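Fold this complex.
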Amino acid sequence: MSALLAIEDLRVTFNTRYGQVTALDGVSLHVNAGETLGVVGESGCGKSITALATMGLIPMPPGRIAGGSIRLEGEELVGAAPARMRGLRGADIAMIFQEPMTSLNPVFTVGAQIAEAIMLHQKVSPDQAFKDAIALLDRVGIPSPDARARDYPHQLSGGMRQRVMIAMAVSCRPKVLIADEPTTALDVTVQAQIFDLLNEIQRDFGAAIILITHDMGAISEMADRVAVMYAGRVIEEAQADDVLDFPQHPYARGLIDCIPALGREDHALREIPGVVPPLHLLGAGCAFADRCEHTNARCKTEKPLLAAHGHHPAACHAVEEGRI
Amino acid sequence: MTDQTTQSSYKAESPALEAWRMFRRNIPALVGVALLAVIVGATLYGTFFYAGDPFEVVWAPHEPPGVTPDFPLGTDYLGRNLMAGMLTGGGPTLTVGAAAAAITMVIGITLGALAGYYGGWVDNLLMRITEFFQVLPALLFAMVLVTLFSPSLWTIAIAIGVVSWPQTARLTRAEFLKIKELEYVTAARAIGARNKRIIWRVILPNAMPPLIVSATLTIGVAILFEAGLSFLGLGDPNVMSWGLMIGANREYILDAWWPVTFPGLAIFFTVFAVSLIGDGLNDAFNPKLRER
Amino acid sequence: MSSSYLLRRTGYGLLLMLGVVVLNFLLIRLAPGDPAVVIAGEMGGATEEMLESIREEYGLNKPVLTQLAIYVGNVLQGNLGESFFFNQPVSKLIADRIGPTILLVITAQLMSIALGVFLGVIAARKPNGAMSAFVSVFATIGYAVPVFWTGIMLIILFASSFPIFPVEGMQSVKLRDAAWYVQTIDILHHLVLPAFTLAIIYLAQYARLSRASMLEVLGSDYIRTARAKGASEKSVLFKHALRNAALPILTVAGLQFGNLISGALLVETVFNWPGMGRLAFDSILRRDYPTIMGVLFFASAMVVIANILTDISYRWADPRLRGRS
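Structure:
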C-alpha cells in the first residue's frame, strides 16, 4: 500500500548562533487517505518543523532540508520548484495554525481572505469566490455567514477565527490537512467543537488529517494512528489505541500517565521531570536519557532506532533489552 | 525586582557596563566617535596651529583650494580665508547644537515625566500643549523667535530648544507610563518615597537608555537647525559659522564651488558622526534588535 | 467612519489654529520694543502717522485682552494685516504663494514615500543583504546632509555639468504665455530638483522605517497563512505585508509634515521657488512681522490639515480603528 503522504528519513538543519543544529533527525511518517495521524510531543520536538517542511514553508536560510524525502501521491516535494509548491499549498495540502488570533490578516475581511485562497487555485470570478467563501463559513458553523464574511478578524472571537481558518484550509478540498495545535489557544468548550468540526470535515471531504498536538486527550478523541516525537525524531509509532493503552517508550509512558482525568485543565507534560534539551546540546546518546529513569551506559552513547521490540515500534534501548 | 531599589547602585551599573561592552565592539559607532573627536578637536585647538581671522579679507576672491599654500582651502567671494572659517566655524555650530539639545532634553523630559507620572488632567493638559507645539513648523517658528529676540548664540539655542522638545516629551511620557507600572516603583511607593523622589530617582534612571539615544539624535538635529538658521542669515552675525559661510557664498556657487562645499561637508560629517554614535548607543541598549 | 469623529477632529484642529493666532499675538507683544514699531517693521523707518494708524487698527491703546479680541477678530475675518514692506495685504501675499509650496511639499512627500517604501520593501526581503546595508547607510547619510546644501550641490551639478533640469524658479519667463499644458510641463520640469532635494532626507527615513516595519510584519503569523494558501511571493510582499507595514509609515508621514514644511522653506530659498518659504525668508530679513505671522499661521494650518488627513487615512487603512473614537 502506498501512502497518500509519505515522509522518509527527513533531515532539517538550522544555522543558529550556536552553529548548525539538527531540528529533524531522520523523521519518517506517513498518512493514508481519510486517516488521522496524531503527532505528539513537547514544544521544540520538531512537530511543527515537520509540518512546515511538508508545506515547503521552512525559512531558508537559516533552515535547510539536508536529506530525506516527502512524497505526496508519489510526487517528490523536497526540492520541488517553488511554483509547483505554491500550486500545491492551499490546494492539495492545507494547514491550520495554532494561533487563530494572529493567523488572519488584520486588514482584510475574512470573506476576502477565504475567497483569495479559492481564487489562487480555481478559475472562478471574484464574486463567485466570495459566495463560495460564505458557503464555507456556513459549512464550518458560523452563524449569519453573509454578514460575518464582511467582518474583519478582530471582530470575531478566537473560536470563530479558528473556524474561519478551517474554512480557508478546506476551501480547495485538500488531500492532506495539517492541523498544528488547532485548539491550544482556545477555551476548553470551544476545543471540543473544533474537534467535532474537523471530524465532520474529514467525513465530508475525505481529507487525511495530520493533527499536531501535545494534548493526549485530543489524540484519544481524534487520531487513528499516533507518532510520538522527541528531539527531532519519531520515538514511537502505532495505532492510537495501542499507544494509549500500551505505551512503550518511557517518554510516551510519561505522556500517557499525565492525561488529565475528566477533561481537567491539562497539566500534561510538567510531570515528566526536566525539559527537552536544546538542540545544539544533543549528544551521541538517547536525547531522553537525562530525563529517563531507565537510563544505562548504552543510552548515553548510542542513539536508539525505531524498531519493533515489544508491542509496537519504539526507539528505546530499555524496551529492546526488555528492561521495561 | 524589588531588590532593584535596595541594590540600585549594583543593578544600575551592570546594564550600563554591558551596553558599553556592546558599544565598544560596534565599528560604525567607533568611527563616529573618532570622527567627532577630530571635528571637535579641530574646532577647539585648530586655531593654535593655523591662525587666521575668518572675517578678514586676505587675498584675491575665489582663489581655488590647493593653489596658495597659505590658504589651503582657497578664499571666498570676498577673498576671506576659508581654512580659517572652517576651523572657527564649527564653534557656534557645536556649541549651539549641544546647548539646544540640552534645553530640548530638559524641557522635554520635565514635561514628559510629569505627564506620564501624574496622568489625568496634568497629562491631558501637557499633551495638548505638546500637540500644539508640534503643529508649528519647527524651523519657521525658530526663525520667528530668533528674529523677534535678535540673534545671538543663546537666543538661537533657546529657540531651537523651544521648537524641538515635543518629541522628547512624548518619548519620556511613554517610558514613564511603562515604567511606573513596574514592581520596583510600587515598592518604592510602599516604603513611603515621595512623588518627587520616585520621578527623578526611581523612574528617570530606568528611562534613561532611550532618552540618551534620543538626546544624541537631538544634537544632530540641533546642529542642522543651527546651520539652517545661519544659512538664512539668522545666526549671530558677529560669529563665523559653517552655515553662514554657505549662506554668504551661495550667490556665487556657479563661479566657485569650494566656498560652499567645504563647510557643507563639515556639517554633514559632524551630524553623520553624531548619528553613528546614536545608532551605536541604540544597538548597545537594545541588543535584541540587532539579531534581526 | 463616523461623521462625529470627523467633526470632533476638525473642531480640535480649529482650536489648535486659534492657539496659533493667540501665539502670534503674544509673540508680537513679547518682542522687545513698541508693538506698533514691531508691526511696521524695524527696517521700514515708519512715520509717526503710519504708527498711529497701526495703533488704531490693532487697538494698541486699549487693554491687552481687547487687543487680543481685535486681533483674533481680524484673523477670523481673513484679515491678517498689511505688509508694509510689500505694500499688500498679507492674505493676498500668501494666497499668491501657497500653491507652489503645496505643490512642492506634496510632490516631495509622495516621491519620498513611494521611493522610500519601495527601497525598504526590497531591502526587507533580504535583511542581511547588500540592499539592506545600502538602505541603512543611505538613511544615515540622508539624515545628516543639510537640505539646503544638497540643493546647492545639485544646482552646481545641474547648472554646469548636466544642464537638463532648470535650477531656479518655477516657470520659464519665455513660456509665460504658452498654452496651459506647455506651462504645466514647464512647472513640472522646474519642480524636479527642488522636490528631489526635499525628498532625499525623508526618502532615506522612509526606506529605513519601511524596512524595519516590513521585517516585523513578515515574521507574523498571517504572512505564514498567506504563504500556506499558496500566495505568490509578490502578493505576500506587496499585498499582505505592505498593507500592514504601511500603518507605521502613515503615522510617520503625518508627523513629518511639519518638518517637510520647514525643509521646504530652505529649499524654496535655495531654488528661488516662489512659495511661502521664500516669502518667509524675505519677510524675516525685512522684519515684516505681519507677513511672518501670516506665514506661520498658514504653515501651521497646513500641518493641522495634514494631521487630520493622516488620521482619516489611518482609520481607513486599519479596520481595527474604524468605528472607534
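Chain B touches chain C through 44 residues (CB under 8 Å).
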